[in-house]
Amino acid sequence: MAGKISNTAATYTPSPTSQNKRRTSIFTGSDWIRPDSRGLHQCRPAFLRTGAVNSASGSAYAEFGNTKVIVSVFGPRESKKAMMYSDIGRLNCNVSYTSFAAPIRGQSCLGKNLVIDPVSEEESYQDGGLMITCMSSRNEVTQMTVTGEWSTPKVHEAMQLCLDACSKLGKIMRSCLIEAVSAPQE
Fold first, then answer.
1. Are strands 128-135 and 107-110 parallel, antiparallel or unpaired?
2. Does position 9 have pLDDT exceeding 70, yes or no?
3. Which fold has domain 33-80+89-182?
4. I need a labelling partner for 37 at 20 to 30 A (CA). Which of 14, 66, 84, 98 fits?
5. What is the model's pLDDT at position 97?
6. CA angle (84 as vertex; 83, 89 as ends), nearest 5
7. Per-residue confidence at 143, pLDDT binned at 50, 70, 90?
8. In b/e form, how buried is each residue of 69-92, taking b as 16+ CB within 10 angstroms?
9. Measuring CA to CA, which residue among 33, 97, 45, 31 is closest to residue 70?
């Protein structure tokens, strides 16, 4: 059958009826309880611990609800001999994750409601998303990513919610680090 030309289309066009379908709303109002029983502006419970990997120069273990993360730092190490000497340092990052790891969490907009730290069911219904990284001790945003169409007041409100959540997480991180430093060394 090689060499035969097919009359079927090579691209997919959705049928007109599927374009008019609307998703049913998964929330009913500002007092809506989320699938994991959190309020709209509540983060998942967080747990942090240092010293997760013995062979690393530094490491930490973190849990955010059902998401578990281990971070390790190895080094400093000498550069390879093939590389010339430089006064500038080099940072090599190796990120690995399991096949069941979930995408990054952030601030989402479901209809008119802002939802912080959405679960996957909520992410599939979101109208947009906002993710920030910040230095909470300086109250300084270092990166911001916005998807979807957001009004300026909505972006401002979402940023304030994210900064509040980052501040709370920063306090947990500081107490974890203080506890690790003040613990007796073995």
1. antiparallel
2. no
3. Ribosomal Protein S5; domain 2 (3.30.230)
4. 98
5. 66
6. 85
7. very high
8. eeeeeeeeeeeeeeeeeeeeeeee
9. 97
